[in-house]
Amino acid sequence: MAVLTYREALNRAMTEEMEKDPNIFLMGEEVGHYEGAYKVSQGMLAKFGERRIIDTPISENGFAGVGIGAAMVGLRPIIEFMTWNFSLVAIDQIINSAAKMNYMSAGQFPIPIVFRGAGGAGGRLAAQHSQSFESWYAHIPGLKVLAPYTPSDAYGLLKTSIRDNNPTIFIESEVLYGSKGEVPDGEFLIPMGKSDIKREGTQLTIISWSRALMYVLPAAEKLAKEGISVEVLDLRSIRPLDEEGILASVRKTNRALIVEEGWNVAGFGAQVAYLIQKEAFDYLDSPVERITQEDVPMPYAANLEKSSLPSEDKIIKKVREMIK
Amino acid sequence: MSQPKTKKETEDLLELYRQMLLIRRFEEASAKAYSMGKIGGFCHLYIGQEAVGVGAISALEQKDYIVSTYRDHGHALARGLEPKALMAELFGKRTGIVSGNGGSMHFFDKKKNFMGGHGIVGGHISLAAGIAYASKYREDGAVTLCFFGEGAANIGSFHEGMNLAAIWKLPLVMICENNHYAMGTPEYRALSVKDVSVRAAAYDIARDHIEGDEVRKVREHVKVAVERARRGEGPTLMEISTYRFRGHSMSDPAKYRTKEELEKYKQGDPLIKAEKDLLAAGWAQEELTKMDEIILKTVEESVDFAEKSEEPPLGWLYKHVYAENV
Ligand SMILES: Cc1ncc(C[n+]2csc(CCOP(=O)(O)OP(=O)(O)O)c2C)c(N)n1
Question: Locate the Dehydrogenase E1 component domain: which residues (chain B) (predicted)?
């Protein structure tokens, strides 16, 4: 088993898929000559050439649309957004064209496209460059939304996304690109809609995904030392959602805490909480709780940024309250 | 363009006239059905603009692609989409071209490379660039024709799409059907230029600007742009002036323009022009009347078909939200 960084795992997934299928191309700002703003496409231009690794001008709405148009006639584009923050100027294309094309055309025009790139909060990038949009895209029927935490999940889920015949929103974590993990050597795919138990436990389930797990996992570790047994569920796939996996865990532990990096109001965790109270109400020993980003645009000051995000301390405190 | 001279030219015009007349009659029938509450939603008619769609689309080959707006009835019929399936779509029936999922604004027909009716003003321009991009990627020799209104020429997607098409020399022909109004806004209140096609200069691509009242002339000009695209010389921005005789949509009485203006443009009705040319070339009036009767019958049958068709089963609600993975 090789130890790869998150970015290397993504690179390997794209490279392997592109070697197999000439219909796949990668398009975005700086993906070619610059080798990716976060170096995810390192070496790919040299390998595949300018026909398949395509640098674009700064025109998110334009190249998102170009990708969708190309997908209408059977190509399988991977469109990189330098970061998901800039996807907002392309959101019309993602929602009104990509997500709905198959439906509007009664199945005549599926859109096999992956929109991918760096997402999430942190790094003191302040209000416009530091935010999580999983909830936004998860709201839209017709889209699939993935947010891997580990390198092997990044690899297995990106390959699945590329092969899927639907538009996929693949949100990578900006702060995880350099993180390392074991990735099995042979090819493997991870199905969408399957969560992963990152840690077994008996007293409470923490449901989380992407970089929020950076706080959740150490918190669970510390809680274990206090004698509190926490199960950690990594959703990985936001839409489709592993409802069975969530319910099975909560029915076992009888308590649920959702930790997400996005905002609270209309955030995705609210949907998970609804699911749990509806389908596992009788199993609950305490109300379902959430920890989210504070209800503010991201501040720049180091202390304020930190205080606005989920943290180990917040999680530990909340779990203690819930277990009492 | 002068009158047809040879028999071949006359027959050619006759066929184009037939297509324009089909659109006109189809639209009149849609308007009637809409007033009776049989058609829902927005319904944007093409009456008055027929020479643009018919002329432009007749310049294409079967392998070429067409991308349209919410004003797509005329383009669809000009491309040869089945009137019955289109009318049934307007009625929201299971036999509709997209089985009742789309309605007036979203006609699609994969078999005919008819790449949709799109409802967001200008949003489809980058999709058209993408389809043209795929043709270049695959070297399939196809050209993409994209229609839009002058209102769309002010939206970001237009500029981004034009720039991308220009830097990549995509086989794309952009046709601005300038009917002088974006809903109730006349062009002079919205456009920084008098002539949309001059914006081609900003992207260093070819341009053309013509009146859109003569169907054969439209075809000649579009052909030049299509051939340029096919030779790999990149996109063209064309402006074709025209006029819609009805309001923006069925719910618009079009009070923002004068009767005199409408009357003036009706003098240039592309159907009347073609009819005059046909008569002058020796075609008998009764032949044309007979043609009209046949078309009226076709349209009646399509209304009848739409009427009698069933609504889509409720079980189809979730069908096609996602494509199957095979
Ligand atoms: C982005 C967007 N803004 C507003 C609308 C509402 N709208 C639909 S058609 C239209 C007018 C567009 O005019 P034009 O592009 O000139 O085309 P025409 O209707 O004249 O064919 C407007 C404002 C829309 N569909 N999309």
Answer: 19-312
